[in-house]
Amino acid sequence: MKAYNPEMHTAEHVLNQTMVRLFGCNRSFSNHLERKKSKCDYHFERALTSDEEQMINDKVNAVLQQHDDVTEEVLPRTKAAQLFDLDKLPDASGEEIRIVRVGDYDACPCIGEHVANTKEVGEFVLGSTSYDEGVLRIRFKLKRPQLV
Ligand SMILES: [Zn+2]
């Protein structure tokens, strides 16, 4: 895995849950996360309005600013399968499934690396979005927290 970025990846969890809550869509089916900028793709019916873009940006930041702990829990696969969609996990993920929680806001099975608390993520900055043939693409950056 090249230049893995736990901050970006944790922001992706919060963005995905925000999209699920605001629009009732599924979590992103594809993403490209880099240290400087990232993008997530969603199956969607239409383009977003600028008001909706602002709403997403504000909601993600409101969650990040709660300074929630990011925690992990390991569940047996059979139990995890009752609670979560495991289709996106690699087949080799085994009989124990790691569930990653962002406070009470989000929970999803994930094998990636995350920050310990959302205060480490910094500010979420939603960039442009685009829509093409059933796919909504959201681009975003992070402004790092200033370490004083
Ligand atoms: Zn993750």
What attributes characterize this protein structure?
binds zinc ion, Threonyl-tRNA Synthetase, Chain A, domain 2, three-stranded antiparallel beta sheet, four-stranded antiparallel beta sheet, 148 residues, 3 helices, alpha+beta, 7 strands
Description:
- The protein is an alpha+beta fold.
- The chain has one domain: Threonyl-trna Synthetase, Chain A, domain 2 (Threonyl-tRNA Synthetase, Chain A, domain 2), CATH 3.30.980.
- The chain is 27% helix and 32% strand.
- The chain is built from three helices and seven strands; from the N terminus they run H-E-E-H-E-H-E-E-E-E.
- It has helices at 6-23, 50-64, 77-83; strands spanning 30-33, 38-43, 70-76, 96-102, 106-109, 123-132, 135-143.
- The chain has a four-stranded antiparallel sheet with strand order 1-2-7-6, covered by helices on one side. Strands 3-4-5 form a three-stranded antiparallel sheet.
- The longest helix has 18 residues, at 6-23.
- Zinc ion binds at residues 9, 13, 100, 110, 112, 114.
Query: Which stretches of 5+ consecutive residues score pLDDT under 50?
Result: none
The top level CATH class name: Alpha Beta
Number of helices: 3
**Terminus-to-terminus distance:** 31 Å
Helix and strand content put the structural class at alpha+beta
